[in-house]
């Protein structure tokens, strides 16, 4: 699978060198701030902070732009559907039969879209700066069973891999003469049928290979004690980051209680 389909991008910066538990604490605190203040300003601040962290991590702007383009359709759909179907007081801005758009409903839709964008950027930062092995080691260090941590890490990793597999199969089928540029919705669904069949077969084959690899490494063997080559240890940079996160959390909670 091509590297361009993997969310993780290897860089040599201090953010990449952080302990995975510290980055998980950063993700949890950002999510808490997103829902602690139900305002557009809070969601926008979290989004800008995530973009700043991605810039400090030297993440290629092409990947960030591709992620934003991918999530833009979902954000617009959330905004439009919430504005149309949420029942809120206020002045009616638009009337479409029994549907009406009020200022409160539009504000609610904008808030949901902003929160979704903030959450997407948070997890994009986490997945793009933490490799699979470090992620599993971080979960295990937090007393999560190894099989649970590995399952969660594999699930997060295989989402972009499946997207890349779909693109590769589509390009291969088009090279063989498959026309995917049908105009009607039903015709386009019928045209994608061979792509989906080939994708399912490839996914099953990859799953079988993964099972063999895990079995060869004695995953789930009774009485086997697993060890790691480089155990996780908090360094000075990790402790400073934890102190900064703790201070930000205390300040945020104090401001929220005022």
Describe, in short, the structure shown.
The chain is mainly alpha-helical. It folds into 2 domains: 162 residues, no CATH class; 79 residues, no CATH class.
3D structure, described in words:
By secondary structure, the chain is mainly α. The protein folds into 2 domains: 1-130 and 227-258, no CATH class; 145-223, no CATH class. Helices cover 71% and strands 3% of the residues. It is built from 10 helices and 2 strands. The chain has helices at residues 14-17, 20-36, 40-56, 61-85, 103-129, 132-141, 146-175, 185-191, 193-216, 236-257, and strands at residues 92-96, 99-102. A two-stranded antiparallel sheet has the order 1-2. A hairpin with a 2-residue loop joins β1 (92-96) and β2 (99-102). α2 packs antiparallel against α5, α3 (40-56) runs parallel beside α5 (103-129) and α6 runs antiparallel to α7. The radius of gyration is 22 Å and the shape is flat. It starts with 13 loop residues before the first helix and ends with a helix. The mean pLDDT is 80.
